[in-house]
Amino acid sequence: MSSPPNPTPAPSPPTPQSPYDTASFWSHTSFSYVHDLLVLGYSRPLLKSDLPSLPSHDSSTKLSSKLQSTWDHQRSISSTPSLTKAIYSAHKFEFWLAGVWTILEHICMLLQPLLLSLFLNFLTSTTSPSSTGYIYAFLLFLTSFLQAIFHHQTYYITMRAGWNLRISLTILTHSKLLKLNLTESSQYAGVAMNLVSNDVFRFDNFCPAIWHYFTGPADGVAILFLLTKELNFPPAFLGIIIVLFDVFLKLYLGKKIGSVRSTTSKLTDARVTRTGELLNGIETVKSYNWDGVFKGILRGLREREHESIFRSQFMKGINFSMVLATPAVASLAMFGLYNAMYEEPLTIERVLGCIALINVLRTSIGKEMSRATENGPECYIAVKRFERFLGLDETEEKSKDDDAGDDDDESSSTTTISFSSSSSLLEIDNASFTWPKCTDNLSSKIVKKPKGNVIMYSTRDVDSTEMAALNTIPTTLQDITLSLKKKELLIVLGPVGSGKSSLLNSILGEMSTLSGSVTLPSGTKLGYAPQTPYIRPGTLKENLLMGSSSSVSSAFYEKVISDCQLRRDLDILQDGDSTLLGERGVNLSGGQKSRLGLARAIAAQPDLLLLDDPLAAVDPHVRSRLFETIRAQECGVILVTHHSIYANKADKVLVLNGEGSVECYGPPSACEGFFEKETTKGKGLGFSVFASSDDSANDSDKVVAPPPPPASTPADAVVNNIIKKETSVTGKVTMKTYKEYYRAGGPYALEAVLLLMTLGQVGIVLSDYTLLDWVESGNDSLLTVFGVLVLCTVLLSFLRATIFFLSALRASSKLHTNMLDAVLKSPMAWFHANPSGRILNRFSADQGQIDEQLSVVLFDVLQTLFLSLAAVVVVVVSLPFMLIVVPFLVWYLLRIRRFVIASTRELKRMENVTRSPFFETITGSAQGLSTIRAFNLQESQSIFLISQIDINSKAWYWWLLGNRYIGFRLDMITVVLVGGAAFLGVVLRELAFFDPALVGLALIYVISLSGNLQYMVRQSTLVETFMTSVERVQAYGKLEPEIDGGEESVDLDEKWPKSGKLDVDNVTMRYGPASAPAVLNNVTFTAAHASKVGVCGRTGAGKSSLVNCIFRLHRYEEGSIKIDGVDITKVPLSRLRNSVTLIPQIPVLFKGDVRFNVDPKGEYGRDEIERALEVVNLEIGLEDEVGSDGDNLSVGQRQLLSLARAALRRTRLIVLDEPTANTDKSTDDAVRTMMERKGGGIGDFGDSTVVTIAHRIESLVESDVVVVMGEGKVLETGEGNVLKAKEGGVFAGMLKESKRNS
User: Fold this and answer.
1) How far apart are the C-alpha atoms of 275 and 267, rounded to whole Å?
2) Which GO-annotated molecular functions does the record name (predicted)?
3) What residues pair up with 1217 in beta bridges, in sequence order?
4) Distance (Å, rounded) from C-alpha 581 to C-alpha 723?
5) d(Cα 887, Cα 885) in Å, to the nearest integer?
6) pLDDT tens digit sequence for 57-112
7) 1078-1085 average pLDDT score
8) Residue 342 falls in which region: left (phi positive, over 0), alpha (psi -120 to 50) or beta
């Protein structure tokens, strides 16, 4: 056996220097240092290992540390810290550098119309020497060249800054999540997920446009001055007024977009949170046939989100339409007013100079500033959302200098733990605790409401007048006093909801101390095993050693594995302790996860070991050995358990009552009267949690357990490494993907948009030619024609934008609906192979890109495509000699696009795929927060996240460089065209073979290409990269569904099944292909009407697989399962799952009120639901709120709600998977009564066939049928009492072993 790895990652080898850091000046200017990667990507699909290192500037650790420092400074100097100021402080160098480049670019943009006017004056002059023309032509070429350089440097810096902020805020959000109290972390986990999957991308959109808030108005003032020189003040001022109207309209729309975006974010939060809940509870949802309920909820949320997105998209459409409309209307107004006020005719050079200036305004204000006004408010909303989240109260770090009495606001802080040099390991002195309340930062409050023996936290809006009442929150634990020394074992007992788990959390510092104190010796190291162990994606070994130091020896590691009864599990796992564990340990049984959590706590070699019922989900013989391991620990141990038979072996016992107070505390002898009654074995069907083996003392000692079965082909071994690596399509996005996306937008929507864009662009070109004809002829009727063309162009602009965004959003929502429907219909094997973080990535990040980014970029591409085509046509018509150059330039454009997009497409796919793991890590951090903090793994978890972000960052950064590379080279094409057209104009003037008006118009259109052409091609590559999100969502929309009854469906009686008779005949099942070992092998047994069936067997015997087959959660390949004589494969899934009830071992609850959790379909009346709650002994109101995953209830209370669901359904066949493992004896008695009671009422299971999966085999003795399983086979079956008396029998041997171990 190899020695265990160091849980702290070993120092990685020195990172190779990034090509960025070694590039030359010209390579930086032209982005040539990415060329080698593009060559490789063109030759074959890129791999993650192909990506060069990131620049030192872009280290995730460095970026997040810098922003964290500036944010901490803001929090230290102000009660209302500003994240905006923190961001500026962290990135002010990039901000001002980008400002310099932007200003230089806009100076070049303003110089070009001036040079064009001078050049046109030269062309119309007969006396100016040709040398003057060549100088002007060279200056036009030079300004175009410099503008291209400045433009790309600006965009590189600003896009990198947006990406840097995305990285920093993701890491800060995760770090904040690790510091929240458990109440808030649960409440805001969905918000945090939406922040890092959606809101962070607002910086990508806004940062490149931030300086356009300033350059737009500055350009407007400069152009007003220049227009006044050409047209006098009134016409120039009117043109500027129209442009200013456009500016103020954009600002107004920007503000409205920001407001709508705020609403959209909340709706997206709700949808993503609910989707996450659905994915986490998918097995319960399918078992209860609640697919339709959650589909309806999510569709309703999506419809509201759709409406909100459309409002913002419609306003963006108005902004986009103004790009063409504003310059045209401004030209009409200026020239019309000039014609009316002045008799002096306009000249060609003056008119073309004015048009060139208006085109600058179209770019500066119409396009660039509109982006700022659209994205600025959205980014502002995102910043405020981050600001509120990062401003949430944090748990206090345990410090040696802390004092229990120093907390001024105890109700909102966590447990204050003081440290001392006392000989006691732990002292709690008359302390009362409560769960921390939520702060008011995100407009909701956790309100604690006592109801009977249940303490509920509910979420609702709270105004300021109610805040005082929240400071008197009822206690969860009252007046607790205890002490513990090294090597002592304290067992904590008590009914469901008494606060046993809360006691451990108070020691961990997760609860608020209302009075008293908690004292630990200085430097005390804690070990913690919660009821639901935290499993991080990685190997079993990595999870086991997560909380251990680097000094763990191989011998100690092996001892922990042996002591925690994991050796056999490792032997049967295909890859042993190198087995990759899925999300929440989906490929482990409940017992395996429990033992792994215990092993982790022991391997940490703590001073104080806190164990929350690790004995609940394991077999009796394993439970006994685990207790021996716990008892033998050299440290102090606090064990929470329902198994009071072990209380006599403890040094101390603490018994809590239903009010969270101490019923008894002291040595076992002092508390004997309080827990002896718990050991009384239940009669009848015996579902007692506390069943002992004492009454079996008279059983023959000759009954011995048979030897354990060989482990060569374990029943469940084939499911060990079921987590599939996320893959993506390679090569270009297919036309089929585009076609499906376009058609999803509605019939002929694309054709309509293309037609309107063609007509609009034709109108623009015709209006320009009409204007020149008017200037040359002086015919005022042509000015009227010009006006009509302008107005038509404006109307077409609005119409095409509206139709486009409406159809794009319709397509997006249809993709979401298809994906949701397909995911809900997918078999459970698919969910086990795909972690929920991966699936959620498609419902959040991918869907968000399709909703709000793809549509904008695609419209940009279409609009600039038509502008570019028009420019080329005008140039060729005006200067036919340019036909010599244009084909070559078009060939180069297509060639370089094909060359670059081969890499950028794969890089974007890679970025999408590598984003899922860190989403999974963030989700896992929220779920395992108490464990992470107990082992002080916050830093380790952050490093783990950063390592995942770095992989994702490489893909994004080199994708950015690829875009800059192609953009710069395409702008060089337009630079060549500008220079070529200008020099050609001079040559044609010398030959007296030209029309100055056409040359001038051609130059105006060519100059407009400078930026538009590269922008169009670059955006087209971005469309293809965003289409990978469409590809990914479409892939989920085509998942293979579960096999329903289909054509073989049978007509069933309305009351089927009437008896609940179950026949399992030679069922064989495997999780993998036909070559994989069978997890069920010819399983056969029969359960008559109203019989009680017990299924038992060791871990990996196939018990859970049998349950999956009964509910058709997994497909079995041979044999049959019949209910009332009907083959269940011929019964529609919805009917089958409505007719059979599953009570799982791990209950799944959803955010909402109690009524929704018990009856999501709304099929039952209030009285019926209240009766179901009464039957299971749960005192709770129907309107009381249940937190996400039931986090505001104890595990026992969650199980009671799960039992209430079953009581309400009253089906004839019920399957129980150890449903009372985490409940007390009174609840256990109530469940046993339900099993015996007949009458057909709520909770009357006496007339139903009940199949029970049990770890406590003593509870199965009274069963009508016992099925003993091993290695997927039925080892023995028969009546419980008969098998008990069978000498040498498997069941009898297991009973004997269990009694001996107890």
Assistant:
1) 12
2) ABC-type transporter activity; ATP binding; ATP hydrolysis activity
3) 1253
4) 8
5) 6
6) 888 899 999 999 999 999 889 888 999 999 999 999 999 999 999 999 999 999 99
7) 89
8) beta
Q: How far is CA 498 from CA 476, 656, 672, 1217, in A?
A: 8, 6, 19, 24
DSSP state of 1183: T
What is the β-pairing status of strands 636-640 and 489-493? parallel
pLDDT at 25: 92
Residue 13 CA, distance from chain mean position = 32
Give me the mean pLDDT over the 143-161 stretch: 93
The tokens for 1268 are 């003993």
User: Hey, is 430 helix, strand or coil?
Assistant: strand
DSSP code per residue over 399-421: -TT--TT--S-GGGS---EEEE-
- Using the CB atoms, write b or e for 953-982: b if 16+ within 10 Å: bbbbbbbbbbbbbbbbbbbbbbbbbbbbbb
Asked whether 487 and 431 are in contact (CB, 8 A), the reply is no
The answer to whether the CB of 570 falls within 8 A of the CB of 2 is no
How far, in Å, CA of 1270 to CA of 1284, rounded? Answer: 18
CA distance 1267 to 1274: 7
Q: Model's pTM, two decimal places?
A: 0.70
Q: How many residues does the chain have?
A: 1302
Instruction: Evaluate the CA torsion angle 250, 251, 257, 260 in order and state its sign.
Output: negative
SS3 440: coil
Rounded CA gap, 989 and 671, in Å? Answer: 111
Distance CA 835, CA 519 (A): 40
Ramachandran area for residue 499 (φ above 0: left; ψ -120 to 50: alpha; else beta): left
Angle at 511 between CA 509 and CA 513, to 5 degrees: 95
HEC letters along 1073-1142? CCCCCCCEEEEEEEECCCCEEEEEECCCCCHHHHHHHHCCCCCCCEEEEEECCEEHHHCCHHHHHHHEEE
Q: Characterize the bridge pairing of strands 1092-1097 and 526-529.
A: unpaired
d(CA 882, CA 891): 15
Closest CA to 1281 of 1273, 1290, 1291: 1291
Q: Does residue 1215 register a pLDDT over 80?
A: yes
pLDDT at 528: 92
Q: 349-374: string of b/e by CB count within 10 Å (b at 16+)?
A: bbbbbbbbbbbbbbbbbbbbbbbbbb
Do the beta carbons of residue 589 and residue 1079 sit within 8 Å?
A: no
Query: Are 616 and 537 in contact, with CB atoms under 8 Å apart?
Result: no
Contact by Cβ (8 Å): 295, 824? yes
Specify the DSSP class assigned to residue 693: S
Nearest to 1018 by CA among 143, 320, 31: 31
The amino acid occupying position 1125 is G
Backbone angles phi, psi at 1247, to 5 degrees: -95, 5
Band of the pLDDT at 1049, cuts 50, 70, 90? low
